[in-house]
Amino acid sequence: DAGITQSPRHKVTETGTPVTLRCHQTENHRYMYWYRQDPGHGLRLIHYSYGVKDTDKGEVSDGYSVSRSKTEDFLLTLESATSSQTSVYFCAISGQGEETQYFGPGTRLLVL
Amino acid sequence: SQKIEQNSEALNIQEGKTATLTCNYTNYSPAYLQWYRQDPGRGPVFLLLIRENEKEKRKERLKVTFDTTLKQSLFHITASQPADSATYLCALGNAGKSTFGDGTTLTVKP
Predict the structure, then answer these.
(1) Residues A66-94: what's their mean pLDDT?
(2) Which residues of B26-37 are buried (b: 16+ CB within 10 A; e: fewer)?
(3) What is the pLDDT of residues B2-51, one digit of tens each?
(4) What are the phi and psi torsion angles at B43 (to 5°)?
(5) Which residues on B lie below 8 Å from A44 (Cβ)?
């Protein structure tokens, strides 16, 4: 997990409230990713970024938005949280020309 | 649609034996395949990468094979130890994006 932090690590929120998760890296890597991990579904890509202000959708992007205003920070926002977004969220990074992804410690989100 | 299947959700073996985990895929032409290890409450950690033009890769007690005709990868841990107990994920990759399998949980009993 060195070089990647996620905050908060745990969060409980209510349906309908906005939630922002933060991923911070100190590796100066170009690519950043947000995944969610659920039993029976494995890791699924939500959004990814290939540079500052450059982002694209993954396979489960509905209900999520992202922003990357600095190389080191990638924010994931749930505009109006729903119970189906209860999950563990992982951020990952990779360098230019690298296939390997390095994962953060994860954020456990519970939407009541 | 793309589909990745990892053999049985759980695999139990005796210490010292070789663990073999399987990753099968359909409707996908990956440029590379990776194996990650995930411990409870932690993020996945990269173990090995094998490219589409490679048949086999080794790293210490780990060995990965990749058969693009069968659309299958095998992941072997030789001389397994209780410390190898974890969930192992395979991931198919292309152009910097990866699709992950659900994982196989390996338990090595002393």
Answers:
(1) 96
(2) eeeebebbbbbb
(3) 789 998 778 999 999 999 999 999 988 899 999 999 999 999 999 999 99
(4) -80, 160
(5) 100
Considering only CB atoms, A99 lies closest to which of B32, B41, B99, namely B32
Using a CB–CB cutoff of 8 Å, tell me whether A62 touches chain B: no
Phi-psi region of B9 (alpha: psi -120 to 50; beta: other; left: phi over 0): alpha
Contact A1 B42 (CB under 8 A): yes
Which pair of structure tokens corresponds to residue A83? 């119970």
Query: Which amino acid, A13?
Result: T
Residues from chain B that touch A101, judged by Cβ atoms under 8 A, are 46, 98
Average pLDDT of chain B is 93
